[in-house]
Amino acid sequence: MKKIGFSGTLDPITNGHMWVINEARSLADEVVVFLSENPAKKPKFTAEERKSIIALSCAEQGWDNVSVVIVRGDYTARAAKKQGVHCLIRGIRTTADFDYENLIQQTNVDVLQGAKTVFVMPPRDLGSVSSSFVKALEGPIGWNWIMKKFVPGPGYHAWVLSWLRKEWETLWDYVHRDATAIAHADDWFAKLTGPSCYGGAARYYHNLDHLVHGLCEIRVWAANTRPDPADVDIIKQAFWFHDAEYGFGGESALSNEEASAQLWMGSHLGQEMGDAAELIRATDHFQGASITHRLKDVLLSVDLAILGQDDEVYQNYARAIRQEYIHLPDDEYRKQRSGALAHLCRKAQAGQLFGNDYFAEQYNERAIDNMQREMARL
After folding, report:
1. Residue 54 falls within a domain, yes or no?
2. Per-residue pLDDT tens over the stretch 288-298
3. Which residue range is the domain that position 213 belongs to?
4. Of the residues 6, 106, 171, 353, which has the fewest C-beta atoms closer than 10 A?
């Protein structure tokens, strides 16, 4: 077969969709993805954005025989035939899927004189993966780590950036700011999420995932403890910038925290900058009690909450930390990492790891267990 088509809204494209596309590649020389533009579905991404995500996802797999066509104002089966595609492929996960897709197939052929359909069944581990399933994951703490398992890298990256943008716009109240202030904030969002900060290729842990996880922790903490909203904003401001600069220390006169605080002060995003700057400086774990701030315990607890996550998330975190220190030989890394974990574990056992009671209750016991198991593996 020369050409075969695959259609859908693909908002977002999932690993299930990618499996079907790969099956299509085994059946034909060329695969055309027909991307439906259906405003009634209110997609998260525009058709052009989805087209780019699909193309990047296929390129990541090395698939050079997949193209994407946006279908506007036409039935997909009819648009496919106009493109010289006489056969479509669809994934069938359940009997309900088959009943629905069979009806569409009959309509395509009998009413529209469009392309016929070939049905394939995905493997068991992808049987429940759909765009609606992936969308429903967003929200609770750790949602990003779970979503990452079900979508290709470019789709995940686009989703996380979209989520972070909403958080950023809410923090700076885009609705009530003038165009100049919004443009300035946009520039800083691009910088923080770009390659020089959290979006950097060498950021294996202190990256966009770290931002998402911490902001979720702050949101859930605030929902459960009802602090002053102004304090919540200060914590968010500090968290956005606290690891923005990474790689200082050593022979540098600046620590990562001081460099990040100075970056924040230079952003001129808010009117009262000093409070958040001092909070950023207070996240320096090596300073101990020498830097004080009324919100220090909360932000440090947010930063350390990763230690108390479930096993899969913790394992991802541990591997990412090793990657960030890939320059260290294994023996040296094991020595330094074991020492750091032993220090943190002793603090947790003494009830001093999480200075905030809410986080201590949520994560202390699990953090001890996670760190002890990692030390045993080291």
Report:
1. yes
2. 567 789 999 99
3. 172-377
4. 106
Q: Is 93 marked active-site? A: yes
Over the chain, what is the mean pLDDT? 91
pLDDT at position 255 is 86
Q: Are residues 98 and 226 in the same domain?
A: no
Do 115 and 216 lie in one domain? The reply is no
**Is the pLDDT reported for residue 286 higher than 70?**
no
Residue 248: which CATH number? 1.10.1300.10
Q: Please identify which of the residues 7, 131, 255, 260 carries the catalytic annotation.
A: 131
Separation CA 267–CA 350 (nearest Å): 39
Residue 1 above 90 pLDDT? no
Catalytic position from the list 2, 41, 116, 294: 41
Residue 135 lies in a domain: no
Residue 284 confidence class, pLDDT cut points 50, 70, 90:
confident
The verdict on whether 2 is a catalytic residue reads no
> Which residues neighbour 224 within 8 Å (Cβ) at sequence distance 6 or greater?
358
Question: Are both 116 and 200 inside the same structural domain?
Answer: no
pLDDT at 104: 75
* DSSP codes joined into one string, 175-206: GGS-HHHHHHHHHHHHHHHSTTTTT-TT-SST
Answer yes or no: 132 catalytic.
no
Co-location of 255 and 369 in the same domain: yes
Q: How far apart are CA 88 and CA 5, in angstroms?
A: 4
Tell me: do 112 and 202 sit in the same domain. Answer: no
From the candidates 3, 17, 25, 210, give the one annotated as an active-site residue: 17
Q: How confident is the model at residue 248 (pLDDT cuts 50, 70, 90)?
A: low
Which two structure tokens, joined as six digits, stand for 6? Answer: 């695959």
Task: Report d(CA 90, CA 103) in Å as an integer.
Answer: 13
pLDDT tens for 88-113 read 998 887 777 777 777 777 766 665 56
What order do you get walking across the sheet with 87-91 strand by strand?
A: 66-71, 30-36, 3-8, 87-91, 116-120
Question: Active-site residue 131, yes or no?
Answer: yes
Residue 175 to residue 193: CA distance in whole angstroms: 21
| Annotated catalytic residue, options 44, 78, 86, 93 | 93
